[in-house]
Amino acid sequence: xNNLEILIWAGIAAAVGVVLGALVLFxxxxxxxxxxxxxxxxxxxxxxxxxxxxxxxxPGEKKETGSDTQR
Length: 71
Prior knowledge:
mainly alpha
């Protein structure tokens, strides 16, 4: 093989590496995006559950605050 053939094969290998790297980065981006969305929805569900629990407490029930406990 002469130098020209080596340069051609090196160029092809570099191009393939760039394409594969781009595919890996794109798939990682997609995976991370999905994980963030799932975590967001889980947090939203927990927040709604906490709000329901808070709103379901009996209205006559007195909640203690810092000023009430200091008296």
